[in-house]
Each structure stands twice: as C-alpha cells, then as structure tokens.
C-alpha cells in the first residue's frame, strides 16, 4: 500500500519539535527538503533530540513558550502544533502549563497558520475519548471524560484545542486538520516519563522489576513512531479536516507487553503489580478505517520490531550516559 504523502512545503513550523514525536517529524520533513523551524521551550523535551538537527542548514530552533506567543517571522506553509506535555507524569506535574499550551498555545499556532495562509495540523489524542465505552473508537465517538479528574488538564485541553481549531476553520477559513494520535512509542522517549513502554524498557535493561499497574489486563494499542509520523504527514498533505485517528489497532494487555519486553531485552527482571492510577482507561484501540480509506495509511512496523529498535536505542543511550559519567 502506498501512502498519499507528497511533500510540497517550503517551510514548516513544528511546535514541540524538541519532543519525542516532534523531533521525528522535524527529521522527516528535513529529509524531504522542507525547511523547519522548531518552537520549543524544553519544558518536557530534550535538547539532545535536536542536537544533530541543529547542524542541518534547514533547521532552526526558537526557544519559546507557545502559550506566550510564537516568534517566527519567516513565511511558512505548514504549522504542526505538537507542543504539549503528553505523558501523565508530565501533565500532572505541569497542570496549568498543559492547559495554557492547549488553549493559548493552540490559538497562537492557529493565528500563525492563518496569517501565512498555511496548512495547520493539531496533534490531538486518543485521550479525548477518555475511558471509552465503545471499543474500538472511531472518530464519531464523543468520548467519556471526567472533566475534573486528575487527567482532565490534558484531556480537556486537547478537547478545547479541537473545538478551537474547528471554530478557526469555520469562522476564518483557516486550512486545518486534526490528528488523534494513539499511544506512540520509539527511540527518544524518556525512561522516566511514566509511559508504559519506556518504563518497562528502562526497568528491564536495569534488571529491576517491571511495574504493571492493576491486574495488567488493561489494553493499549501501540504505534511505532515512524508509522505515526507517516500518518501525520499524510493527513497534512491530504488537506483533510478530520479528526482522523492515527494509531495501531493491534491491542496488547500491559501484562503481555511487560512479558514481551522482558523477552526482547533478554532480561531476568520479574513483574511487580502496583496500584492503578485514577481514571486510567481500561481499553484503548483505534478504528483506523478513515485513515486507511482517505489517506491510504496503516501501520507497517510490527510490535516486536518496533520494541527491538526501541530497546536497542535505550541500550545505546545508557551506554553513552555511562561513558559520559566515567572519570
Ligand atoms: P513530548 O513531551 O516528548 O513533546 C512535547 C514537546 O512540547 C516537548 O519538547 C516540550 O518541551 C514542548 N512543549 C510543551 N509545552 C510547550 C510550550 N508551552 N511551548 C513550547 N514548547 C512546549 O511529548 P510527545 O509524546 O512527543 O507528544 C507530542 C504531541 O503529540 C503532544 O501534543 C501530545 O499531546 C501528542 N500525542 C502524543 C502521543 C504519544 O503517544 N506520544 C499520543 C497522543 C498525542
């Protein structure tokens, strides 16, 4: 299957470009000849993610909080709005920042796109479905979200961002798209960001017990980052308004994921069951019919391959860290 992605952009602004997904997007855009300005305040991102990109003549990093404004003067024809804390550990630590980034930050990113006549794509999330009462979730499902629960700062910021994006398109004619990303994993995740894959990989490589929450029967669908990036750029190039789900429909229980990581990392770690966080969704699985039919997109990387690449990257990172701290 071929994906309908034919890049025609001269210059893209990627907010959150120093983060996990954003930095892979920057790399993919540069690889296809698009100049990239990354706007990132490093609140949850890492300078290491863009260290190599800073050597590229087509790449610029602007250190700014998008909630305060986006100081980019260059003409741009694509704005990918990916700035936002994304892991529960981060948005619970940064609740107001998360809400301001999803509201004021989204407004500034939309205004930048509108002023330039550029295409705008909002990184939304499967969290807009909350603890879903239908499985799998398609884009017509309105969700089941607790508006005052601990996760609400993220879920509601993203829901507000979707509403604002829709209002901008309706009232100002801004060319907008919304991608709802489901759990994405891969190299450049932070081992302590609290998400299942980096947590399990870090623990397995350190020989520590893998901490599975609850009874481990809750499921997630895990999409390798290269697949996610291909889906986002396909939605950007297509011009669809969305929202469109981008995720891997293959569901896996957290217990099976922990067992698989132990095997692939060749680890002796045990599994330890710990308390499940409040409002942790029991199920999460995308219906990707829309992405498949409109964009010709579907994930290509099998979990075993994606997890192997992720484990290899974490191993290499740990070795670099060890070399750095050696006298
Ligand atoms: P990440 O934390 O690695 O990256 C987010 C980046 O945004 C970081 O570099 C951070 O420094 C930056 N940022 C945060 N607030 C900012 C602000 N106010 N101004 C400027 N920069 C700011 O997270 P990620 O996993 O790469 O997620 C990227 C985007 O994709 C987020 O919008 C997230 O909601 C969305 N998303 C991710 C996933 C996933 O599984 N990774 C799933 C659904 C949605």
UniProtKB/TrEMBL annotation:
<dbReference type="InterPro" id="IPR044516">
    <property type="entry name" value="UXS-like"/>
</dbReference>
<dbReference type="InterPro" id="IPR036291">
    <property type="entry name" value="NAD(P)-bd_dom_sf"/>
</dbReference>
<dbReference type="InterPro" id="IPR001509">
    <property type="entry name" value="Epimerase_deHydtase"/>
</dbReference>
<keyword id="KW-0210">Decarboxylase</keyword>
<keyword id="KW-0520">NAD</keyword>
<feature type="domain" description="NAD-dependent epimerase/dehydratase">
    <location>
        <begin position="13"/>
        <end position="247"/>
    </location>
</feature>
<protein>
    <submittedName>
        <fullName>NAD-dependent epimerase/dehydratase family protein</fullName>
    </submittedName>
</protein>
<keyword id="KW-0456">Lyase</keyword>
<dbReference type="Pfam" id="PF01370">
    <property type="entry name" value="Epimerase"/>
</dbReference>
């Amino acid at each position: 299957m071929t994906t309908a992605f034919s890049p025609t952009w001269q210059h893209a602004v990627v907010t959150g470009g120093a983060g996990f997904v954003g930095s892979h997007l920057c790399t993919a855009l540069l690889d296809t000849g698009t100049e990239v300005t990354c706007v990132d305040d490093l609140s949850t991102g890492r300078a290491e993610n863009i260290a190599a990109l800073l050597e590229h003549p087509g790449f610029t990093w602007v250190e700014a909080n998008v909630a305060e404004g986006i100081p980019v003067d260059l003409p741009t024809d694509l704005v990918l709005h990916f700035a936002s804390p994304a892991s529960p550990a981060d948005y619970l630590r940064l609740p107001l920042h998360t809400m301001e980034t999803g509201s004021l930050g989204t407004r500034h990113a939309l205004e930048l796109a509108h002023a330039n006549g550029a295409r705008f794509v909002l990184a939304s999330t499967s969290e807009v479905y909350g603890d879903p009462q239908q499985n799998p979730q398609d884009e017509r499902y309105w969700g089941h979200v607790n508006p005052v629960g601990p996760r609400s700062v993220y879920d509601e910021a993203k829901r507000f961002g979707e509403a604002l994006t829709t209002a901008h398109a309706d009232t100002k004619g801004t060319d907008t798209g919304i991608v709802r990303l489901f759990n994405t994993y891969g190299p450049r995740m932070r081992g302590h960001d609290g998400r299942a894959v980096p947590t399990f990989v870090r623990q397995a490589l350190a020989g520590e017990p893998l901490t599975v929450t609850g009874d481990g029967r809750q499921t997630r669908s895990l999409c390798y980052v290269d697949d996610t990036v291909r889906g986002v750029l396909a939605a950007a190039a297509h011009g669809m308004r969305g929202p469109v789900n981008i995720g891997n429909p293959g569901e896996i229980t957290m217990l099976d994921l922990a067992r698989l990581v132990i095997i692939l990392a060749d680890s002796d770690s045990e599994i330890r069951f710990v308390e499940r966080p409040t409002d942790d969704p029991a199920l999460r699985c995308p219906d990707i019919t829309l992405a498949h039919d409109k964009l010709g997109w579907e994930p290509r990387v099998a979990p075993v391959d994606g997890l192997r690449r992720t484990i290899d990257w974490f191993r290499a990172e740990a070795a670099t860290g060890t070399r750095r701290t050696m006298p």
